[in-house]
Structure prediction request, 963 residues.
Amino acid sequence: MSWREIQAWHAHEGNEIIGVFESDGQQGLTSAEAEKRLQEVGPNSITGQRGISPVKRFMLQFCNPLVYVLLVAGTITMLMPGHLVDASVIFGVVLVNAIVGFVQESRAKAAIEALNKLVSLDANVVRDGHPRRIDAAHLVPGDVVQLQSGDRVPADLRLLHLRDLQINESMLTGESLSVNKERETLAEDMSLADRKNMAYSGTLVTYGQTTGIVVATGNRTELGRISHLLESVTEIATPLTRRLSRFSILLSWIIIGVAAFTFALGMWRGGYSLPAYVAGLFSGEPAITEIFGNTFISAVALAVAAIPEGLPAAVTIILAIGVSRMAKRNAIIRKLPAVETLGSTAVICSDKTGTLTKNEMTVARIITAKARYRVTGVGYQPKGELLREATTATIENTAQHGTNRDGGFYPSDAPAQVAPGDAIPVVVENSGALQQCIHCGVLCNNSRLVHNDGIWLVEGDPTEGALLTSATKGGFEPTRVCAEYPTLDTIPFESERQYMATLHRLPEGGTMIYMKGAVERVLALCDTALTEEGATVPIDRETLTELADMLAAEGLRVLTFARKPATAEQLALHQDNLNGGMTFLGFQGMIDPPRPEAIAAVRACQHAGIIVKMITGDHALTARTIARKIGIIGDEGSVLTGNELTSISDEELSAIVENTHVFARVAPEHKLRLVRALQAHDYVVAMTGDGVNDAPALRQADIGVAMGITGTEVSKDAADMILTDDNFASIEAAVEEGRGVYENLRKFITWTLPTSAGEGMLVLTAILLALPVIPIQPVQILWINLTTAVALGMMLAFEPKEKGLMQQLPRDPKEPLLTPILLWRTAYVSVLMVIGAYALFMWKIENDDTEKLVAQTIASSVVVMVELTYLFNTRSLTRSILSVGFFSNPWAIFGAGMMILLQLAFVYLPFMNKLFNTRPIPLIAWLEIAAIAIAIHIIVEIEKWLRRLHAKSQTPNQPAVTR
Ligand code: ATP
Prediction:
């Protein structure tokens, strides 16, 4: 039977399936066969039509009450004689807004979807008899795949072996609890949710380990079959965009109300009664249709000009640009709201290992019950020496007996005059504590060292890689040791357990359990210790704990090694085997240097008013030393351990959580408590995590941060942001970008509100004051509104980050977007704009004898030029444009250039003159227009300068804190 014909994989024996695929449960497929199958069946990725079609998305842009109002207004305008151009411009506004909205939305979607591709999935597969880590897209049917807790299942698998396996299949079955898996063959009619011997692509391993054979890849997986149901709707709305849309809808209705009122007022001023108007309109009475037409179009112009139509779309694009900028700095945003929350992050809780430190481990010290050793060299390169440290006892021995008498571990030609701490070369004795400690490190190990282009790298856990290097330095060949002591069973390391254990067959017969893990955890299980001579003596736990503390206080990561004979026939490890009775072999202490960039990033955060806390599974003393080196705490800083956390109440925790910055030996459930305690103090909390059980804390945090390299798929699934380089500095970078995004949003709003309000006020005042000649015609306002929004306002989305962003305090998340400063500026800039346009218009008409149409063209150019110079004001909300750099946003220059060209066309091109009733204006008028625009620009700059002075006087000794 061919594998293509089988449907019910769960109803077949594992071995039968291996046979059908011509695979091998131990050796896997050969690379050649896998390559052949890949050509045949294609990559393991789900393809197909997903998402809403572009046409539908474009049409959806019109589904908006505001657009309906505009369409109705446009239609009425079109029906009125002589208002075809006005109607076309209104329809133009609708169309251009839809196009801009569509393009922006598409770009935002594309940017966010592209990020998903950056986070690709790897799989552990056995090929040619060796475990390998490959891109999951290259899996083929018949591949043997190994999974452990935290992994995402990369294809549909029939399970062959498993240990305590639990898988969360909610994405497939909707069941939120993880299900226990088994390997037994099942009846054919089992439903998907009951197929316990299968693991389905896309689901998450939440506990245990398994080996399975791939039975389906890509679109042939269960996930592939239902992928049309899982249509990836990239959510581009965030609380902020929703708030802003609600705000602009509310504003729109208010403006429409005002417009309706002005319409009624205009009609009333026309002097006819309602029945007369109705009759006149039906009979086409010219006077009445003219009054109606002019009043109506003015009211529509008022509404169109004053409503900030582009606001929601602009906000989305600003957020999307923020997402791309963060991705360039190694922070992948998974949930868009995180972009805005990042800017107000007040506390960052970070893991230590790999995030604040390099996770490049080097064993530097080995301590057994009776001797101390130093290991030289750095990195994974097995170059260095294992040296024994002379202690008072060994020196006394030498003095008394002339030679070394405490086991013969260093050669008799060792210097006769040694002082405590001196290093002496070592010869490792068989079956002694040192040899067994090193063996244990090699055997209880899932990593591999690879030598690539002269560089030694670890495949797997760096902590374990370091043990292979130290073994080689001591003269052991890890592969030989592993061959001599075949592994029968493994319990891999998990943070919650804090140990790893393996079961081995001994060359001399019998079996042995080896175990390594955290000091407190493993020492507690030991009641004897091995000496250098290979004797077993009662354990002196107190002294050993002191020695371990000594290593930890040096900032070393300490692992404890122990062993225990197993019963001869035992082939599997059980928890009961690990309850005690172990023999202590030794400690290995490893250096994990802090990342220099993390030190700088922590400092930057502290300058930015962000509190950095270290939350680590490591030893309290190690944590404290590293935290000091990194600058998280000073000499006085204290450490709270997981045990202490468990013993205190929520109230007690609440009292100390703000001022405690290092938490050690912390379990994932503590992380959740810490996040909650900090949030209760109203902090916006970012929390890192990598393990399966970190997921609840990542979800609870305002910004859950998962590790891209070492993080489990479960943690990535729960996170808002993924760091592609696992580096703390990338969190700081993302926060900085988040602040930049928020600033750009505020800049856009600061530009758009006064300009929209000013345009609206121009029309409104003309109607309210019942001026005989209005300074700007409605159709001209419509044109200005359309062109300036696209050519000027949009350019603020591309504004680069300002310097000094990280010298301000975190933004209060409750701070309203419309601050009093913003409202005040909206008021005075719009008033100044209206006064400028009116004043020049009146002056031209009265003193210069300028023709009305020319004066109107001049007034509309005032509006455009004020909006243009004001754009450069808003490029920084606080700093002067000179310190921001006039050319630092090329888009603003480009937009301004475009706007000037459009305005020249508006003023000088004959067909534009015809369409918009404009007239060419003399050169001198441009100078007057420029004078007004520059004057308003200078006024706003003076206002910013006064505010800066005020801020400085408030905080004389601090960097410019603007809030
Ligand atoms: P962080 O939470 O900052 O990443 P961490 O990586 O040090 O801290 P864990 O990985 O939970 O935290 O490690 C906790 C302890 O478990 C370590 O101090 C160490 O003693 C022990 N340990 C770490 N890795 C292993 C391993 N591979 N095998 C056995 N024990 C380990």
Summary: Residues 518 and 829 are 65 Å apart (CA to CA). Confidence is low (pLDDT under 50) at residues 398-416, 956-963. The pocket of adenosine-5'-triphosphate is lined by residues 351-353, 461, 463-464, 493, 495, 498-500, 516-518, 557, 559, 616-619 (CB under 6 Å). Residues 728-768 form the longest helix (41 residues).
